[in-house]
UniProtKB/TrEMBL annotation:
Gene: pcaH
Record's protein name: Protocatechuate 3,4-dioxygenase subunit beta
Taxonomic classification: Bacteria, Bacillati, Actinomycetota, Actinomycetes, Streptosporangiales
InterPro entries attached to this UniProt entry: Intradiol_dOase_C, Intradiol_dOase_core, Intradiol_RC_Dioxygenase, PCDO_beta_N, Protocat_dOase_b
Listed PANTHER family: DIOXYGENASE, PUTATIVE (AFU_ORTHOLOGUE AFUA_2G02910)-RELATED, INTRADIOL RING-CLEAVAGE DIOXYGENASES DOMAIN-CONTAINING PROTEIN
Entry keyword Oxidoreductase: yes
All residue ranges annotated as the Intradiol ring-cleavage dioxygenases domain in the record: 67-95
Amino acid sequence: MTHPPYLSPAYRSTLLRAPSRPPLLLKADPDTIELTSPVFGHHEVDEHEADLTRQHSGEPLGERIIVSGRILDAAGRPIRNTLVEIWQTNAAGRYAHPVDRHPAPLDPNFTGAGRCLTDDDGRYRFVTIKPGAYPWRNHHNAWRPAHIHFSVFGTAFTQRLVTQMYFPGDPLFPFDPIFQSVPGPAARERLIAAFDIDATEPEWALGYRFDVTLGRTPVEDS
């Protein structure tokens, strides 16, 4: 098993979130179980939503990056026309959310959320800003490595996966209980994007590749 455990004491909030009783077995009802494709809200997904640097009147601060990859099923087949959503901090390590009180500056030109649909080959592509590390008070001197949250729908709501993408060579990996809660170095490696020189655009943005395989990419229990 490569998924993080529901209860990981070093990740303190799991003490409140993890189930304390055995699961109940419910009989599947074919009339009520979710078998249909996802519906993505009241509005169609606009192609401009995938560029997080063009959602406001000005340029956001920070290092511009391109994040792309493929969404695959467990057999390695592309999942077409499926929704990929991301959310993240700005370059200073702060979320554009009222609950985030980290004393780092907000960027009026960066909201930190985007979405797109995969193409016929299961590919997606985002343009964004490299997020910053931030403190999170889980333990003494606790800092989250730079990461981007991903939500991926398969062909049904029951296949939805929420995970995190990290950046190569981050010095905070050994100190992060969320990253370390994923058992085994091979599984943790699947959460780290690869630098992609082919996706890098000269004099404009570095590229990173992050492929997601439903059933193999570790999920986020947060």
